């Protein structure tokens, strides 16, 4: 399979080669649980903040974050079309090797989703309760949830370490950009076709 696809493991960095020959269904299920479970964090934030008159604005911001993150992830994923680690494995059947999902490795959508959810929740919570003792806990969750998701994706054989690293950064950056755009009216985020544009008006 490797010869037919022209794939060479040695062309990848030693950092990414760590993902080779890993294929765990348990890790795959865990990554699903962590990624989709991260959506609970913004819900918890809303529950605590329900007396705040701005909670509806926070809801709009969350949907913006989720949509922008999904758009960016899919645009880059299907433009780059990087082969997943399991495609390089010699133990797979021809059907698995040529599965259409096999070219959607970069970057990790599970990790970017978990990261955008967790960072959004932490930022909103910090804005609402800047002096709360739970602020460090929320930021801790913004690290633990997506990092754990990314590690599980690597052990599932679905992504290389660089896939999940970039996924984490992109998810967090999306959440930060959306929240900051609502804090500062000079910062705007909009879309033009498949292009995401970030603009800042100088004084």
What does this protein structure show overall?
The chain has 203 residues and is mostly helical. The chain has nine helices and two strands, in the order H-H-H-H-H-H-H-H-H-E-E. It has helices at 2-5, 14-17, 25-37, 40-48, 55-80, 94-97, 109-128, 135-155, 161-183; strands spanning 187-192, 195-200. It is elongated. The model has no long low-confidence stretch (mean pLDDT 81).
Please compute the radius of gyration using only Cα atoms. Answer: 19 Å
General form: elongated
How many angstroms does the end-to-end distance come to? 58 Å
Total strand count, please?
A: 2
Sequence stretches where pLDDT stays below 50 over 5 or more residues: none
User: What strand line-up does the widest sheet have?
Assistant: 1-2
Could you say which structural class the secondary elements and strand pairing correspond to? mainly alpha
What's the main sheet like? 2 strands, antiparallel
The fraction of residues in strands falls at: 5-15%
**Alpha plus pi helix count:** 9
User: Helical content, roughly?
Assistant: 55-70%
Mean pLDDT figure: 81
> Which H/E pattern describes the elements?
HHHHHHHHHEE
Topology, pairings included?
Elements: H1 2-5, H2 14-17, H3 25-37, H4 40-48, H5 55-80, H6 94-97, H7 109-128, H8 135-155, H9 161-183, E1 187-192, E2 195-200
Antiparallel strand pairs: 1-2
Short description:
The chain is 61% helix and 6% strand.
Question: What labels describe this entry?
Answer:
203 residues; mainly alpha; 9 helices
């Amino acid at each position: 399979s490797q010869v037919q696809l022209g794939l060479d493991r040695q062309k990848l960095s030693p950092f990414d080669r760590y993902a080779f020959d890993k294929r765990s269904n348990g890790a795959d299920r865990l990554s699903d649980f962590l990624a989709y479970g991260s959506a609970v964090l913004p819900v918890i934030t809303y529950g605590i903040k329900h007396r705040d008159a701005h909670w509806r604005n926070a809801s709009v911001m969350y949907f913006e974050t989720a949509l922008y993150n999904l758009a960016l992830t899919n645009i880059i994923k299907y433009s780059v079309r990087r082969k997943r680690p399991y495609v390089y494995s010699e133990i797979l059947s021809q059907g698995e090797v040529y599965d259409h999902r096999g070219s959607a490795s970069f970057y990790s959508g599970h990790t970017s989703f978990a990261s955008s959810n967790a960072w959004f929740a932490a930022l909103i919570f910090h804005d609402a309760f800047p002096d709360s003792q739970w602020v460090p806990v929320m930021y801790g969750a913004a690290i633990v949830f997506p990092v754990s998701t990314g590690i599980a994706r690597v052990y599932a054989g679905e992504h290389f370490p660089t896939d999940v690293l970039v996924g984490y950064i992109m998810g967090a950056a999306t959440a930060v950009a959306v929240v900051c755009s609502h804090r500062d009216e000079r910062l705007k985020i909009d879309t033009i076709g498949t292009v995401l544009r970030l603009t800042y008006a100088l004084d």
